[in-house]
From TrEMBL:
Alphabetized InterPro entries for the sequence: AAA+_ATPase, ABC1_TM_dom, ABC1_TM_sf, ABC_transporter-like_ATP-bd, ABC_transporter-like_CS, P-loop_NTPase, Type_1_exporter
Compartments reported by the entry: Cell membrane
Name of this chain's protein: ABC transporter, ATP-binding protein
Residue ranges crossing the lipid bilayer per the database entry: 27-57, 141-165
Organism of origin: Streptococcus ictaluri 707-05
Amino acid sequence: MLGRFTSDVETVSNALQQSFLQIVNSFLTLILVSGMVIYLNALLASVLILAIPLIYLSSRYVLKKSQPYFKEQAKVLGDMNGFVQEHLTGFNVLKLYGREEASQAQFHQITDKLQEVGFKASFLSGIMMPVLHFISDSVYMIVALLAGLQVMAGLLTIGNMQAFVQYIWQISKPIQTITQLAGLLQSAKSSLERIFAVLDEADEVSQKEQSLQNDLTGQVSFNHVDFNYHEDRPLIKDFNLDVKPGQMIAIVGPTGAGKTTLINLLMRFYDVTKGSITVDGIDIRDLSRQDYRRQFGMVLQDAWLFEGSIKDNLRFGNLAASDEAIVEAAKAANVDYFIRTLPGGYQMIMNQESSNISLGQKQLLTIARALLANPKILILDEATSSVDTRLELLIQKAMKRLMTGRTSFVIAHRLSTIQDADKILVLKDGQIIEQGNHQELLADKSFYFELYNSQFRS
């Protein structure tokens, strides 16, 4: 994707800059000189005009043969850019597992493929010039011969013959220019197709403009919801759930059970295939996505912070927040003291990877950001994974403050973090196989009971 909007756009830009004026100039020259040739001698001009379809058909044949290679070249170039970006980002992991040589070999495979398709594309487009020269020279010889015969017959003066021959060369120059630019234009065409393949994609879901008149209370209902990524493979089937405002709903289950998909449907990253999801009795498909999503806060395992000051990161969900409100949110999230120990405090600049603070500290910052946004509904996804015990306790305390008075959906594999949930949903193959609070599910001694005991035995 990145390659389509960097290297492909650059290819199109270069092609337009280098070729547009030359092509316009060449076509104007071709039209004007052709008119002069016809004016001087219609018979000789007919020979020249008959050669133009031959030049066109030859060029079209070569371009048609080379076009697939230009498309493949653009694709492989995008693959190479993606490969480089991915492996530079994960370079430490490569070194850790000793995969440098394997990665290098894979890179050579991509570059060899790029060299192969690039050579074929350049070779085929390069054939056009020799073919054009052959046709031009042949036409020149035929016209010169016919002009000589007409001079001998007294039908043409030597001066007109000389002018005619010069005009033939004038016609060949713009044709050669257009032909030389054909390869560049072919490459640009392939890049344009890749760019428009993205731009022409339909919107993910239909956009309706009904705005929220009031803030939500947080009542959520899933009504006979079906969803599938592929028509022949349903993922969520006849899913029903009613959530009261302020309730904490925990979602557990094996990998692929549909936990994250359920949240994506609630956030309206996807639309349901069948059924409906309502919030405060309103079908979420009838709401403006922007207004609707503004009611949500998210704290994810992969805590995302952008390059900028800590204050700007905290204010991200509420641009109108005052400095005092930012500090209060940080205190509530147990991160104010840590921020004040940093050089620059709230003004410290986070680097691009946010690697100048720990994962747990990033999660505390995202909790503070969510508190400052004051959402009505919370999405918490593995927010206490991969942190030490002390930070986990701080995060859990901050989470409790964050969830107070808000409808919360928590995805967790660590069942110790969801024992206070109002309702725990156990998902398997896109369906609820168990539901209830922690004590009720343990008393049932079914899937949740086994999962809970296996975690604490380990």
